[in-house]
Amino acid sequence: MAMPDEEDASAAVAGGAAAPAWSGSFDGRMASFGALGGPPLLSVTCREGVLIITRHAAAPVGAQALFALVGSEGIMRLPVDATSVPGHRGYLWQGMIAADDPRTKVLGGAYTGTLPGAGMIKVPTGNPVREVLARCRAAGHAPPPQPAGSDSAAE
Fold it and tell me: From CA 72, how far away is CA 27, in angstroms rounded?
């Protein structure tokens, strides 16, 4: 029996809508999990080798917590903060982690995520999020750009 605040990705949404699924952005830098046409429940974005994980659930101003992710590919406890996200009313839970951190492996498989006050979410594996992880890890390993006109051999 599911708790009232539990969001089960394997169950159909009320009204006969499709079950939540992963979708990706055209550039491969963001994946969202949610019902088609509805607001996301979870999103994973890559920015310069860093993953930004957003649990789209209301967060009290100034709050901090640990987002516990337990799945087939491992366990991660991600520190998250109540964050004002452009385009969203109020505050959402958001945390950051280096894409090459071994704990991010959990995001590529099926897992449950638990957050105090936001309940539990069951997330299936998905190609869009795997693509974001792979691209972000590759971006994190790129050599830092050299300033224009610099020549280390001339020194």
Answer: 27
**DSSP summary character for residue 13:** B
Of 18-27, 48-57, 132-141, which has the strongest mean pLDDT? 48-57
Residue 133 DSSP symbol: H
Runs of H (alpha helix) within the chain:
127-140
Give the tokens for residue 19.
């079950």
Reading across the β-sheet that carries 7-8, which strands appear in turn? 7-8, 119-123, 111-115, 64-71, 74-84, 91-98, 50-58, 40-47, 30-34, 21-24
23 neighbors 31 (Cβ within 8 angstroms): yes
Q: Which amino acid is at 96?
A: M
- Per DSSP, what are the bridge partners of residue 136? none
Answer whether residue 151 shows pLDDT above 60.
Answer: no
Strands 7-8 and 119-123: parallel
Predicted pLDDT at 89: 84
> Could you state, in order of their start, the residue ranges of all structural domains in the chain?
7-141
